[in-house]
Every structure is written in structure tokens, then in C-alpha cells.
Amino acid sequence: MKQMFLPSLLAADLGNLAFEIRRAEAAGVDAMHIDVMDGVFVPNISYGPAAVALCRKVAPALPRNVHLMLEDPARHVEAFAKAGATTILVHAESRCDVGATLRRIRALGCRAGLVLNPDTPVSSALERLAECDEILRMTVYPGFGGQKFIGRAVEGLGAIRAAAPELVVMVDGGITDETAPIAAAAGANAFVAGSYLFGAPSFEEALRRLKESCAPKGTEP
Ligand code: DX5
Ligand code: ZN
């Protein structure tokens, strides 16, 4: 199954976002991961639909993977769809009708994703697989970049992979060339990395190392 690599915009230089988006695209990422935080569902506040619109403007061909860490994401999915989201991901733990919100995201013409916090049982996603195009397993507690990978969070991803072989199974938080292979072995095929990529002396070189670290044995990334 195709592997995908997504930089998290949260770790990019806020003063040079357009430059950061362009250099990520030039390095060969598959989509931009945009973390949206409301200061309620998570303690931090980031940005809103304008950041998605900026990505669309400066890199129209680069898909926009929008991770909503919002108490009530249902109120905002339309604004993010209008701003140019390709995929909209909502948390299973948020305070809204999650099934209805996933269906609404698809009705708006976007791909729908379900996010699970590290302590939410992976099995709870099994009943929702038909409503999702992507599952995102948090491998840190959401809210901040630069945290340490929680290894036990990837246990159980194999059950999702087995139940839906074509589904995008993504991991987010503490992803490096040391932790990505652990997640890949557990069943993940998409990897979000913030500080590892944007914090590296060379984004391009870090992306190459990340791809190499989890390429299936005997294949070239
Ligand atoms: C955490 C965010 C992540 C985070 C990843 O709430 O969802 O996308 O920015 O950053 P790193 O890769 O630095 O852990
Ligand atoms: Zn994220």
C-alpha cells in the first residue's frame, strides 16, 4: 500500500508560511497537515480556515489534510470545506454527532477522517470504517508539537488495516525516522511529522530519511 508523508504546518515558521509550504511541496510531501485548535478541546490555539486557504493559494496541487481539534467540529466543517480542505478529520472524542459530521464532510465534497486519541480504544473505530476515508491515530496527546511518541498507541492498528485494507491509516505525534517504522510495522501507511521535518537543517534530507526508515524491505521509497 502506498505510503504518504505529511508535514505538520504547526512546526513551520509562522513568519514565512508561504515559503514553508512551497519548500515542503518541492521536497515531495504528499499533503499538508493543518492542525486547527480551539483552546477548549485542547489547551492550545492555532489557526482557522485562513491557513487552509493560504495553502490552497500558494500550492494548489498539494492536498490539504485538516485536523480539527475542536470541541464542536460540526459547526465549522463547512467553513473548512469552503477554504479548500481536501480531507477533514474530526476527533471521536469531540462533542458532536460524529457519524453525522463524517457524512456531512463527504457531502461537502471532502474526504472524511476520524481521529482517535492515544487512550481511545482502536476497536471503537471499527464500526465507523464505512463512514471514513482515513483513520488518524494520535501518538501523542493532542495540543502541541514536539512531544514524545507514545508507542502503545499504535497497538491495535493492525485490526483496522485488516478490516479495511484500502483505508488510509495515519499516525500523528512524535514521528521521526525511529518511530515511523514502529508505526508502519503496526499497520500505518501515512505519517504526519512536524518538528522532525521543519526543525531539521535540511527539510529535503529529513524527508528522505523518514521515507527510507519505513519503506517496506526490498523496495525503494
Ligand atoms: C498535535 C498535532 C500534531 C503535531 C505534530 O496536536 O496534531 O500534528 O503538530 O508535531 P510533531 O511531529 O512535532 O510531534
Ligand atoms: Zn495533527
Short description:
The protein is α/β, with parallel strands linked by helices. It has 8 helices and 8 strands.
Tell me about this structure.
The chain is 31% helix and 19% strand. The chain has one domain: Alpha-Beta Barrel (TIM Barrel), CATH 3.20.20.70. It has helices at residues 17-27, 49-58, 77-83, 98-107, 157-163, 180-186, 195-198, 203-214, and strands at residues 4-7, 32-37, 64-69, 87-91, 111-116, 134-138, 168-172, 190-193. It is globular and about 40 Å long. It is α/β, with parallel strands linked by helices. Residues 8, 33, 35, 67, 172, 192 line the site of zinc ion.
SSE topology:
Blueprint: E1 4-7, H1 17-27, E2 32-37, H2 49-58, E3 64-69, H3 77-83, E4 87-91, H4 98-107, E5 111-116, E6 134-138, H5 157-163, E7 168-172, H6 180-186, E8 190-193, H7 195-198, H8 203-214
Helix pairs in contact: 2-3
Residues 8, 33, 35, 67, 172, 192 line the site of zinc ion.
* CATH C-level class: Alpha Beta
Bound molecules: D-xylitol-5-phosphate, zinc ion
Derived structural class: alpha/beta
Strand arrangement in the largest pleated sheet: 1-8-7-6-5-4-3-2
Q: What is the element string, with H for helices and E for strands? A: EHEHEHEHEEHEHEHH
What is the subunit organization of this protein? Answer: single chain
Which sheet architecture does the biggest sheet show? 8 strands, parallel
**Number of DSSP helical runs:** 8
CATH topology: TIM Barrel
* Total count of domains: 1
Name of the CATH homologous superfamily: Aldolase class I
Q: What number is the mean pLDDT? A: 97
